[in-house]
Amino acid sequence: MAYHLKTFKGKPKAVSDRVLVSDMFFGEQKTKSGLIIGDDNGKVRGIYPRWGKVFSKGPRNKDDYSIGEWILIEHGRWTRGIEVEFDGEKHELRMVEAKSVLAYSQEKPNDELRVGTEYTDGQHATVDPQHFVNEAGRAG
Question: Would you give the end-to-end CA distance of the chain in angstroms?
Answer without folding.
Answer: 43
